[in-house]
Amino acid sequence: MTSKTTQTLDRVVIRFAGDSGDGMQLTGDRFTSDSAVLGNDLSTLPNFPAEIRAPQGTLPGVSSFQLHFADHDVLTPGDAPDVLVAMNPAALKANLGDLPRGATIIANSDEFTKRNLAKVGYADNPLEDDSLESWQVHAVPLTSITVEALAEHDALTRKDKERAKNMFALGLLSWLYTRPLDGTVSFLERKFATKPEILAANLAALKAGHAYGETTETFAVQYAVAPARMPGGTYRNITGNLALAYGLVAAAHQTGLRLVLGSYPITPASDLLHTLSGLKRFGVMTLQAEDEIAAVGAALGASFGGSLGVTTTSGPGLALKAETIGLGVSLELPLIVVDVQRGGPSTGLPTKTEQADLLQAMFGRNGESPVAVIAPSTPADCFDIALEAARIATAYRTPVIVLSDGYLANGSEPWRIPAVETLPTMPVEFTTEPNDVDAQGKPVFHGYKRDPETLARPWAVPGTPGLEHRVGGIEKADITGNISYDPTNHDHMVRTRAAKIAGIEVPDLAVDDPSGDARLLVLGWGSTYGPIQAAARLLRNGGERVATAHLRHLNPFPANLGEVLRGYDRVVLPEMNLGQLALLLRGRYLVDIHSHTAVRGLPFTAAELATAIGEQLEELK
Amino acid sequence: MSVDIGMPSVGTSGVPRLPDGEALSRKDFTSDQEVRWCPGCGDYAILAAVQGFLPELGLKRENIVFVSGIGCSSRFPYYLDTYGMHSIHGRAPAIATGLATSREDLSVWVVTGDGDALSIGGNHLIHALRRNVNITILLFNNKIYGLTKGQYSPTSDVGAITKSTPVGSVDAPFNPVSLALGAEASFVARTMDSDRKHLTDVLRAAAAHRGASLVEIYQNCPIFNDGAFQLLKDRDEAQARLLHLVDGEPIRAGEGADARVVVRDVDGLRVVPEQDADPAAVIRHRVDDPDPSTAFAISRLDDPSFAHVPMGIFRSVDRPTYDDGVRRQLAAASGEGHHSDTDLATLLAGNDTWTV
């Protein structure tokens, strides 16, 4: 065996692509974990079809997982892959357009059969003609080498052996990028603990892939990416959905309330239900309801009983929950509604990302029905946003809508695990004594006598003697909470509920402007954080002056937002919708906003944003 | 046969009781709100019966919650001095499910109507019954939409002339009891607003039942469907028409020579003059029959002309309740006590960490 040279890179973008059943998400996940443990900073983008198993070998069935890892801080999953692993012709065809000239293609040549080529309209085998001459192509018979490597595993069928080809590919890529195998070995040991034969086959395939890289002459160079310099601490890799689920558990822990989740399965939010249903040891109660409406109803019922009621959904589900959220506005009870946004309208693009539920979250209810709306900016921020949602919901007794999205939910990044003692404390105290006196001076409980600071009403839960009271969706008299149709009272209550939400304390918007005199501000919200920061970095590296700011609080806005917006000659606002936040800002602050929008179901790339912002900068010159 | 899985078997188990010697009165359950139903509404009688019955439970008042939807009946919680929620149309069973599951120490009641429970909230009703959540559902059936002023409801008869069916309804109605039995409800009963004693007896049994209890209450709407149940309120007519469901007894209407009784023959259940009945074919009512088929067949003896109307408890069987099951899983995972900071830190860290 000749020893091969190792070349050091500062960053690599790999895309694993194959058929939906090829295990590409798992392969990508494992490569990500191994890279994270090596200390690389990273960001991931899973991209898969809504169909569970689209016809094999076809373009609609292609599933991919992109990973960007580097020796410096990473902001996006990468605009374009440096390496494409294509497990079949469909995967090659579907992804080749994203691949810059000169990039590396590792293709499973076994799958490039006449039949598979025909399925995607290749007349000739691209691995054999010269159509791929602008790329570095490694045609590797991944399936047959895997089967051969497992020749001695008699208990397995040929099909079982073929299924291990993703582990062979992972082993090969791990060699190519000098990743350790230990993490994946222990992962497989856990996953297949009860299936020793499958475990043995997967381990053998993984190691065979690694050995293949070492011995074959196809790969002459091995690459290394040094650890990134990150703030000291203990890290793990985490997806947005997992971070959000853990954040909700932490919120229950910090408030001392029981977490009660009412949920109905919906892509891409279901993982929240899956994760939380497995955390019963933390007192987390999960109810899989008969529909979206029942899910939020159960959560609101639990909140009435003194729990932290939460419901998780995506856009279509938020539409169905609207009336119950309105009831929450009227009852003034804490309620957390998580909307993991996906492409709409209607069923839309269930597995793709979008930010087009902002106006639905803001206004999608009858009547004047304001709720708090917040949005996480990165997968790791999903943890903190859950705590923030709980703070607002419990302190102000209000529904809070959290707008995550498919990109944050399934994407991952390293997360510096916070020490529990550093989490915000937010103990909740229920009202247990009368809070008012009646006309005769007798102590009484008045359900809508508010805290003068927060305007929150008392939270007196069933089981509290002497405070028996009724709440409901009919307009209530100020103070007492009794039914009231009085015109002046209604006007007062509508304005009071609005004032309560408008008065929620939120931190000022921080602006990042390294130059100190930028004339253009790029404002964002939600998952566009990474692409915006990456684009700003590209521009700043090119000598441009650009300021950036990112909104986590969408209702109410930070108090200094108007002042920030007016401080720049131009405000550019990229959104994965047709300009929903721009509409709100123009209406609220009477400032012009240059909206830059795209709704392709994918996050912005840094390059396209840099180009768009660059054009705006030119106009200012 | 019921399976003993160690679950509580009484509806109000786990709900704090008043100390021995202390008792509440009807007045204690009467709120300070003015009752605003129409004069003559059947809801008044039901309210009086419920207020009169609640003290009998011996529960602490603060541990009783009434949740309602939308409709005339759904104003009910405002008139009871317990905890209460007047929610939105059709959703009370879902809200009550979240409340009852997360609070074992509460006695949770749902008040609903035929439109609320069977039309807009039909899905929640059947699922609450299927899950067997420990709640008691009082379904006021007046066969009309009252609060929206007189449209036909899902229990209105075919041909009913209403504001929205000027030439008669062509909509086939639900039989609420059949529906509940089809959803595998563990307790299903029917009673009447005007029969205080029967209503109270049924409430007593429903409250004692652990699991979802559905009580259909025939209720007169004097404004939009007056007299809908008149035949069953007239003493003599009722005598002849009401098939009394008494556990262990033949199902009989009328007396003496006019008595009729339910028999099972090759065509299923039939109502025949008792004097003609083959004694071997006369069925004896069994509320705890694990097979709901007979109870369902009894519910089908109903007909729109009220020729005979089964009245009483159709079914009362023990089966595991959803909320007990959920709490049991939590307890088994030691999720009852407060978890420590260390537990949370371990969760957050997961399996693959690295230190910088």
Automatic annotation (TrEMBL), chain A:
NCBIfam families recorded for this chain? OAFO_sf
Q: Which GO terms describe its biological process?
A: response to oxidative stress
A Pfam family that the UniProt record links to this protein: POR_N
Which residues are in the Pyruvate flavodoxin/ferredoxin oxidoreductase pyrimidine binding domain?
260-476
Query: Pyruvate/ketoisovalerate oxidoreductase catalytic domain spans which residues?
Result: 21-210
Where, if anywhere, are coiled coils annotated? none
Organism superkingdom:
Bacteria
What name has this protein been given in UniProt?
2-oxoacid:acceptor oxidoreductase subunit alpha
Q: Does the keyword 4Fe-4S apply?
A: no
Q: Mind listing the UniProt keywords for this protein, alphabetically? A: Oxidoreductase
The GO terms this record gives for MF are: magnesium ion binding; oxidoreductase activity, acting on the aldehyde or oxo group of donors
Automatic annotation (TrEMBL), chain B:
Q: What is this protein called?
A: 2-oxoacid:ferredoxin oxidoreductase subunit beta
Answer yes or no on keyword Oxidoreductase.
yes
Q: SUPFAM superfamilies of this UniProt entry?
A: Thiamin diphosphate-binding fold (THDP-binding) (SSF52518)
**GO annotation, biological process:** cellular respiration
* Residues covered by the Thiamine pyrophosphate enzyme TPP-binding domain: 70-217
Species of origin reads Metallococcus carri
Parts of the chain that traverse the membrane:
none
Task: Tell me if NAD is a UniProt keyword of this record.
Answer: no
Q: Where is this region: Disordered?
A: 1-23
Q: Which UniProt keywords apply?
A: Oxidoreductase
Q: Which GO terms describe its molecular function?
A: magnesium ion binding; oxidoreductase activity, acting on the aldehyde or oxo group of donors, iron-sulfur protein as acceptor; thiamine pyrophosphate binding
